[in-house]
Amino acid sequence: MTAGDPAAVAARLRESGCVFAEDEARLLIAEAADPELLADLVERRCTGAPLEHVLGWAEFRGLRLAVAPGVFVPRLRTEFLVECLLAELPAAGCVLDLCCGCGAIGAAVRAARPDVLVHAVDVDARAVACAEQNLGPGRVHHGDLFTPLPGELRGAVDVVVANAPYVPSAALPTMPAEARLHEPRAALDGGADGTGVQRRIVAAAPNWLRPGGRLLLETSAEQSTLLVAELEQAGLDCAVVRDADLEATVVIGRRRGSAAQP
Question: How far, in Å, CA of 43 to CA of 111, rounded?
Fold first, then answer.
């Protein structure tokens, strides 16, 4: 492989099984400051590391977001969750992003709505470090779901949003190696039926939402029925929305009571 030669880099990537070898070659060459670094980046990618971990960033809704090795990589389908959130968000609202990973949802919301206050939470210290790079200091909390949040947010949040893990435990071995081997299990494993973490969020969310506030959860089409039952039991009015092109499903719950208009 000739250093800096897009064709040669693409050929090496293609040999290792990269489907979009030419596109990846251009990105890796642009990221590398010298031939030695390029060789290292290409080797890491060829041995299976996710492209985003190799580059150190991921693109999400047109933003370039810091993503470190061992941190969940934001998926394209989650852009639909952001679209749904923005449609439900009142002016100068407060958003709480649980299981935030690198902070992609919060960063996208802030880019679209600078008037909004965003708080984000993740249990993984590596994810919190990335989220602080993408969201800035003071708005990212390290801990389990609602536990690390300041008390003044209780009953004051307009939208709680979460791309919580929703892969059933038994299905984890069938996931692509890039996710299975390079992303934290806690960001993927949703328990026996995939809704274990989501159920915990649903049970606690009404305590943090304003009257009329919304809870939005990304999930699968199969699991959405289970979550609707959970939301109804928690006293939330609910709806399920889908984007067939992105294969994305979002469950929306509304705390009963008056609220500001989006």
Answer: 34
Reading the block at residue 249, the tokens are 């499903």
Q: 189 phi and psi, to 5 degrees?
A: -80, 110
Looking up tokens 């902070």, which residue turns up? 103
Residue type, position 61, single letter: R
Give the count of beta carbons closer than 10 Å to the beta carbon of residue 233. Answer: 11
| 109 conformational bin, left if phi > 0, alpha if psi -120 to 50, beta if neither | alpha
pLDDT of residue 262: 45
Q: Are 97 and 119 in contact (CB under 8 A)?
A: yes
Please report which residue ranges of the chain form alpha helices under DSSP H.
6-15, 21-31, 35-46, 51-55, 78-88, 104-112, 125-135, 177-182, 196-204, 221-233
Residue 61 and residue 82 in contact, taking contact as beta carbons nearer than 8 Å: yes
The 10s digit of each residue's pLDDT in 48-96 is 999 999 999 999 999 999 999 999 999 999 999 999 999 999 999 999 9
> Smallest Cα–Cα separation from 164: which of 123, 210, 213, 131?
123
| Residue 39 Cα to chain centre, angstroms | 30
What SS3 string covers 214-235? Answer: EEEEEECHHHHHHHHHHHHHCC
Pairing, β 157-162 against β 209-219: parallel
Q: Give the separation between CA 17 and CA 49, rounded to whole angstroms.
A: 12
Asked whether 260 and 115 are in contact (CB, 8 A), the reply is: no
